[in-house]
Each structure stands twice: as structure tokens, then as C-alpha cells.
Design goal:
This protein has one domain: Sulfite Oxidase, Chain A, domain 2, CATH 3.90.420. The longest helix is centred in the N-terminal third of the chain and has 10 residues. The strands form 2 sheets. Strands 1, 4, 5, 8, 9, 10, 12 and 13 form an 8-stranded mixed β-sheet that branches. A 5-stranded mixed β-sheet has the order 3-2-11-6-7. The chain starts with a helix and ends in a 14-residue tail after the last helix. It is 19% helix and 23% strand. The chain is of the alpha+beta class. The protein is built from 9 helices and 13 strands.
């Protein structure tokens, strides 16, 4: 089965993106027009000093112009193409093993949630890293709103898949829509965060607007973007990257510098902006919050 970087090569060879095409040009080839720029709205939320990131903030421009969002293209510069994402109106389906399956409007959800700002480190499996001031609320608050049954042991998340605005969905070898999952224990952990803003504004489309998961002790591919469905289940979800290459991208995906990716080391990470390489920390430095969840899972392949 093809790995992540081999898939990039296949896409280029197949002509999915013309050689030398920018993401904006890729959008133009798909739709005929370049999408307009997105106006971000200010968000006011108190900063929770308990979560300070432990590093200087990454420059906002770096965070908003260097992204993985394959639905809009496979380069890191998808911000122009992603501007086509329509986020209003938006709703999230609460499904599966819940007291009452239903759909919640994003605006209604925001009226029920108390927002705060948290500074988290974000570590990609590709070995780059950034530190971001996210605005949002604990996933645990949404779980409580959903009222899952006691027999639910996992939470599955699904990203929007809209072929009208997402040219990347033409890449038919990918198992769209993008899905991810957590155990219920992970979902209820105090660090697990649903982000609706960053740098004091609403999240831009390329970073996962209008609502995304932020799980700072795991590799970034666990932090599913543009969520349209949250499903509670008693079966471990088979997630997007697992379906593509389970030997490289497992369900747990906890950051560990001692366990290399099959094709590169995870011992260090490159900080966006400065380009500095620094040692990677186990659990991305959040062990005091999360390590105890895995004490009884010594037989599991906990790291991707």
C-alpha cells in the first residue's frame, strides 16, 4: 500500500495538479474562478494560564500558510484554494450511541459553550512543529451535550467532503471523507479541545474552520478539521490514515521521539518560522496530563 509521500508522487504523475501549479491555480483549473479572500471575525476569550505552550508563539502567517488539508490540495500552501470553503451555515451531527441523535447548528452550539484561549504545541508526524493560541472549549463539554450511552467507548469524527468546493476529493485513491477517532477516555481528557478560533480570530478555512479538534499530545493528523459529524460507538474507528497505511499511521498516534516513522526519525522537530530543530518530547511534553491513560495498554502500538 502506498505511503503518504508516495501518494504525493502518484498524484503528481497522474496529473491531479499540473506541474508548477499553485493551489490557487489548482482551484482555478477546477472551478474557473479564484475564491475570494475570507474575512475572519474577532473572538474574545480569556486565556487559560494553565496551558501556556512552553514556547514562544509561532508567527500567525506561518500557521496560516503552511497547512495539510488534502481536500484542497497536497501542497502546504492551500490557503487560496481553501477560501472556497463555505462555513455559514454550518451544523454538526451528533450520532451513534447517544440518548437522542440530532443535528446542532454551529451558532446555537457557540451560544452554549464558554470559550477560552489555550496555547498548545502542535507536532506533525512529518516532524515540523508550531505553537498556537487556540480559542475554543473542551471536547468534554460537547460530549456532555450529546449525552452518549454508557456503552459508548469511542468517538469518531468526520470532516466535510464537498466536491463543489474541494478539488482534492478528485483524488479517488483516498478514503474520503476524512475520519478520525479517540477513545472516550481521551475525549474526556482535559487537554482535548474543540478549536473555533486562533490568534484572537475565527479559524481560517485552511486551518479547519469553523471547528476542528486539537489534541496536543498526538501527531497532528489526529486533529480532524471542519467537523460535520461526531459519532459515538463501541467499536474502534478505522481512521483515514489507517485505511491508507496502517503500518505507518496507527489509531493511537501519540508523540514519541524514540519510535521513528518507518521512513524518517521522530527524535527532533523543526519549528516553523525559525527553522530551528529541537528535541521532540514524549507525549509532546504533555505527559503529566495524559500518560496515565496508557499505563495498562503496554501491548498496544501506541505511537505512529
Amino acid at each position: 500500500m502506498l505511503g503518504r509521500r508516495e501518494l504525493l508522487g502518484v498524484a503528481t504523475g497522474a496529473g491531479i495538479l499540473a506541474a508548477g501549479a499553485t493551489p490557487a491555480r489548482a482551484w482555478s483549473l477546477f472551478s474557473g474562478d479564484k475564491p475570494p479572500a475570507v474575512a475572519l471575525k474577532p473572538l474574545t476569550a480569556p486565556r487559560n494560564a494553565k496551558y501556556d505552550g512552553g514556547r514562544p508563539l509561532t508567527d500567525e502567517r506561518e500557521v496560516t500558510t503552511y497547512n495539510n488539508y488534502y481536500e484542497f490540495g497536497m501542497s502546504k500552501s492551500v490557503y487560496d484554494a481553501a477560501a472556497a470553503l463555505k462555513t455559514d451555515p454550518w451544523s454538526i451531527e451528533l450520532a451513534g450511541m447517544v440518548k437522542t441523535p440530532r443535528t446542532v447548528g454551529f451558532d446555537d452550539l457557540m451560544k452554549q459553550m464558554k470559550l477560552e484561549e489555550r496555547v498548545y504545541r502542535h507536532r506533525c508526524v512529518e516532524a515540523w512543529a508550531m505553537t498556537v493560541p487556540w480559542v475554543g472549549f473542551p471536547l468534554a463539554d460537547l460530549v456532555k451535550l450529546a449525552e452518549p450511552l454508557g456503552s459508548a467507548t469511542f468517538v469518531k469524527f468526520t470532516t466535510l467532503a464537498d466536491p463543489k468546493t474541494m478539488p482534492g476529493l478528485r483524488q479517488s485513491w483516498y478514503p474520503w471523507p476524512y475520519t478520525e477517532g479517540l477513545t472516550m477516555q481521551e475525549a474526556m481528557n482535559e487537554l482535548t479541545f474543540l478549536s473555533v478560533g486562533m490568534y484572537g480570530k475565527t479559524i481560517p478555512p485552511q486551518d479547519g474552520a469553523p471547528i476542528r479538534l486539537t489534541v496536543p499530545w498526538k501527531y497532528g493528523f489526529k486533529s480532524v478539521k471542519s467537523i460535520v459529524k461526531v459519532e459515538f460507538t463501541d467499536e474502534q474507528p478505522k481512521t483515514f490514515w489507517q485505511q491508507l497505511q496502517d503500518s505507518e499511521y496507527g489509531f493511537w498516534a501519540n508523540v514519541n521521539p524514540a519510535v521513528p516513522h518507518p521512513r524518517w526519525s521522530q527524535a527532533e522537530e523543526r519549528l516553523l518560522g525559525s527553522g530551528e530543530s529541537v528535541p521532540t518530547k514524549i507525549w509532546n511534553g504533555y505527559g503529566e496530563f495524559v500518560a496515565s491513560m496508557y499505563a495498562d495498554k503496554t501491548k498496544e502500538r501506541l505511537f505512529a
